[in-house]
Amino acid sequence: IFQTFFVLTVTTTSTYAFVPTKSSSFASMRIPAASSSKTALGAATASVDALKGAKDMILDILNEKNCAPLFVRLAWHDSGTYDDSVEGEWPAAGGAIGSIRFAPEINHGANNGLASAVALLDPVKEKFPDVSYADIFQMASATSIEWAGGPDLGVVYGRVDAESPDQCSPEGNLPDAEAGDEGSYGTDTGTKSTKDTTPNGHLRKVFYRMGLNDEEIVALSGAHTFGRAYKDRSGLGAENTKFTDGEMVQKRADGKEAKYTPGGSSWTDKWLIFDNSYFKIMPDKCADPELLKLSTDTTLFDDEGFSPFAEKFRDSQEAFFESYAKAHKKLSELGSKFDPEGGISI
């Protein structure tokens, strides 16, 4: 569910968080120096004031760029490398450790376009150096969901950053949205094989590896209510649709008209608003054919383990928001080391 994403142009909105690509290997090059944050191995801890200042700065970026789905994707792809079975000293298991800012991880095919997201957030790090990259990425994601009308996620901060490229996870831990040329989903190149001939089996191999369950898989998939997939980045979707070609007005949750760069395919018609529309559109055989439906989307209503949750979220936005908030918070903490222990609430 993480990779159907895209490269960002400055006013564009990219999408989601785990909808994998069909097969992507076009990545932007970003090789930053090791983090300058004093929190690298737990030295200085960001103050509440610094964290609040960082959040205010992220809100300013969101209001100017309308790039909320891109920020969600960035954080999810940082978290989504986590492997619960990996033993060894932190951060061997991957997760929400800020390692996505380093090459080679930022250049993994599934992360195509995310260097632009990191670049948008670099000024936040420059202004608030004691706030870790891992915190900034997760804060940008949580703030984006709330900005778009989603639930309060209760995300906490104080994450310690990975320090160097050798702490990046191997390529292949994120999910695919469609099968590859050989007819299977996933790869054998990550920390654990995610290959499967079915979309539901593949999703379970990816998310169970992280320690997530069926309800959490379905809830997190609901973030596809948000954002767009781009053919030139993930290999999926159309060049543009009537919902993304710039002709249709897109409103934000605050009611303001959003400026955006045309292009891509969206799962929903109002793709800058976070609600339960995704769960209404996916099973609807009369839904507009220009809306995106991937195999990893439709399987949520076909699989007997997934479908009770998908139907529940279709029928109740309140139930979706409750489950989503818990799943998102859990995802945001996978593999994280907090200083102080337990994190900081703001």
Structural summary, described in words:
The protein is 35% helix and 1% strand. The protein has 11 helices and 2 strands. A two-stranded antiparallel ribbon has the order 1-2. With 346 residues, it is an all-alpha fold. The longest helix is centred in the N-terminal third of the chain and has 18 residues, at 48-65. Helix 3 (114-127) packs across helix 4 (133-147) and helix 6 packs across helix 10 (307-315).
In terms of DSSP E residues, the strand content is: under 5%
Main β-sheet: number of strands, strand sense, barrel status? 2 strands, antiparallel
Mean pLDDT, rounded to whole units?
A: 89
Shape: globular
**Assembly state here?**
single chain
- What is the strand tally? 2
Radius of gyration over alpha carbons?
18 Å
Cα distance, first to last residue? 28 Å
Order of helices and strands: HHHHHHEHEHHHH
- Structural category is mainly alpha
Output the number of helix runs: 11
Strand order of the largest sheet: 1-2
Percent helix range: 25-40%
Low-confidence stretches: 4-21, 23-43
Summarize the structure in short.
The chain has 346 residues and is mainly α.
